[in-house]
Structure formats: C-alpha cells, structure tokens
Amino acid sequence: MARTVSIDYGHKRVGIALADPLMMFAQPVGTYSPSEAVMVLKKMHSDEGIELAIVGWPLLPDGSEGTATEAVAGFINRLSNQIPGINVIRWDERYSSSEARDRIKSGPQPSLKKSGRGRIDVAAAGIILEDYLSTI
After folding, report:
1. Domain span at 103
2. CA–CA separation, 37 vs 18, rounded Å?
3. What is the mean pLDDT of the segment spanning 121-126?
4. In whole angstroms, what is the distance from residue 30 CA to residue 92 CA?
5. Domain tally for the chain?
6. Which CATH number goes with the domain that contains 30?
C-alpha cells in the first residue's frame, strides 16, 4: 500500500512524519539535514512505497510567498528528481512550528534545551500531516 509523508523543510533541519497505512495518524520519523532527508525519503520510497509527499509551504503571514518558499521549491525539485513519480502537495505551514513548540512545552518532556529545534521540526511535520489528513 502506498504511503504518505510530510516534510517540514529548513536550511539546517528537515522534519519528516509518516502517515499510517489507513491515513489516520501522523507518526514522527525524525529530523535530518536536507541532504540526509532526501536519502531517508529515497529509502522510505523503496521500502514503504512512498507515493505522496505533503511539503510545508512557508507562506508569509499575509499569505504571500517569500524567500523561504523559494528554498522549499528547490528542495521539492531535488526530491522530485531523486524520486521520480512522487506526487508533491505544497501545504500552508504557517504557525506549525509555534504550534509544535506549544505542544511540546505542554507535554511530559517540556524542556527544549537539548534537542529543542529537532523536536520542533519533526513535530511540525506531524502537524502538517495531521492538517492534511483531516481534509481527506
């Protein structure tokens, strides 16, 4: 069965989450450098049959595109070249990182001092995927 992933792209870190086979839940995969993320996604594609990638599209607060969307577009191009045939959906990710931060801080391990940004990135990928799954 084809699987769906979500990606929260950043220049330093990329968070990845994976939907369960029934497309009901987002499961965190991890946080990687951009080049590692492409390799992980390629492996997931060969192992799991990744068919759809929901990529966080970093719109500005007013809904317009900026320099961050240009960087994500480059990553999407690289991903599409490395995994031919993968479908990509650009998903409005505004406020996903702040929501992830809030969820982590209210959880059982609220400290963000040691691995904070990485935890936020993978949680944001999960939130992006949850948002997408709630619409299908």
Report:
1. 3-133
2. 13
3. 88
4. 21
5. 1
6. 3.30.420.140
